[in-house]
Each structure stands twice: as C-alpha cells, then as structure tokens.
Amino acid sequence: MHTVVRAAREVMKACRRAFADMRWNCSSIELAPNYLLDLERGTRESAFVYALSAAAISHAIARACTSGDLPGCSCGPVPGEPPGPGNRWGGCADNLSYGLLMGAKFSDAPMKVKKTGSQANKLMRLHNSEALRASLEMKCKCHGVSGSCSIRTCWKGLQELRDVAADLKTRYLSATKVVHRPMGTRKHLVPKDLDIRPVKDSELVYLQSSPDFCMKNEKVGSHGTQDRQCNKTSHGSDSCDLMCCGRGYNPYTDRVVERCHCKYHWCCYVTCRRCERTVERYVCK
Hints:
With 285 residues, the chain is of the alpha+beta class. The chain is 33% helix and 26% strand. Helix 3 crosses helix 4 (96-113). 32% of the residues are buried. Its main location: secreted. InterPro entries: Wnt, Wnt_C, Wnt_CS.
C-alpha cells in the first residue's frame, strides 16, 4: 500500500507540473478520490489523469521490485538483444513485466467490477489506462580510467514520470472524441468524426467535451482562472490573453532573491552572494 500511496503523490506532482501553463491546471486531482466533475465525466482531463495514474502505479511497483521493497519480485530480466559496442548488460533492471501485471490488476479492477457508471465510461478508462502504462529505455554507467568511459554497464530502466506526463500531455492535446456504438454483437468505442477507423491503442480517448475553464463553475468542475498568474510576453497557453480569457490582468511587483557573483575557488568549492531584484508579474482579473 505504501507503494501505491507514493505513486498517488507522484501523479499529483507530475500532473500539476505538466498543466501549470494551462487554464485547467490539475488542481482538482488533490481532492482524490472525491473528484469534481472535470474528472468524473468522460473528458480529456479525465483521460489524462487515469492514464497517468495507471502508468505511475506500474512504475512504482516495478521500481519497488528493483529496490527490494516488495517481497516476491526482484530485478527485471537481462534483455535478449545485444547492448551495443562498448556496452554490457548489468545492474538491476526495473521489473516492468511484474509492474505492468500488478499495476493493471490494481488500477483496472475497480472499472471491471464497478456496478455504477456507464459502460462507455468504464471502457474509456480501461482504454486510457493502457495507452502509456509504462515504457523502458536504456540507461548506462561509465567505467574506465579517469572517467574515459571505455566500458559502459547498461540496464533497462523506466522513464521518469515527468517524461511520461509530458508524453501524455501531447496525447491529451490530440485526444480523440469517441462514441459508444454497436459494432457486430457488442458495443465499442469508435471515433465520433472518423468512425471508419478503429481507435488506436496508443491514443487517449474521451466521451464529453470539456468546458473552457475560464469561469469558476463547480457543476462542471471548473475552478476558473481568476488570480492565476499569466505571462504577458508569451504566445502560448500561459499567455495573459489566453489564460485570462479576455478579461484582462493586473500587474504586481515581486522581489526575488537569488545567487549571484559566484566564484570558483581552487580547490574545490564555489562561493556566491545573494542578490535581490524586482520583477513584474501579472495575474488574471
């Protein structure tokens, strides 16, 4: 259970970081498991959160195996493919297969046994949970005289959750709206506008369009953007024009204390002074 609690905390941090520059900033995830409607309905935001949660649980279980925190599992198997010239397999690989197995059992079980809620919502959450549950990448450590890296010991490790969240955010922005439609003897999720092709396993899907999140409206799970900080010079989603929904913004000054005039001393330390400067910031009306 400690592993799952840790995964939940990581999901909160990764989600807030990924959406810090958007109107919907993932703040309602902190109310888990008593979500507002932005996450209870079949929206893009719900798709992102369920996919990230499933990936995080699989990650946490796989890494708990590697660190020896879970009985009954250990390091992942040595990969079958060659590691490449100058490399050798070693270390303790993240146990992805066990993490995927147990993560799926834990995060998908409520949807498979839950008697309330629509079948379409259950199918949507199960699909999104599989979209990016986990992936491995090669990680290496150098060995050699004076750090020459003549030999590298490599292992397969999981992506950092912040990278998974960034990948899922890209899929969130291009998510496919689906409908629950009969196909043959059963109902399936098919693209609403492009129902000539099946839904891809790798894409996030949603059933209901989201509000614009400009104004506070608890009925739809919107916190609004009043008093949110915006970027006056940006042309992206954090710009004052987009973030403030055309309502305008108020400037204020803030004092920032930072390290400055740093000097390196032989050998081997750095000393810095502390400098204070005034910056102008902006918040939405």
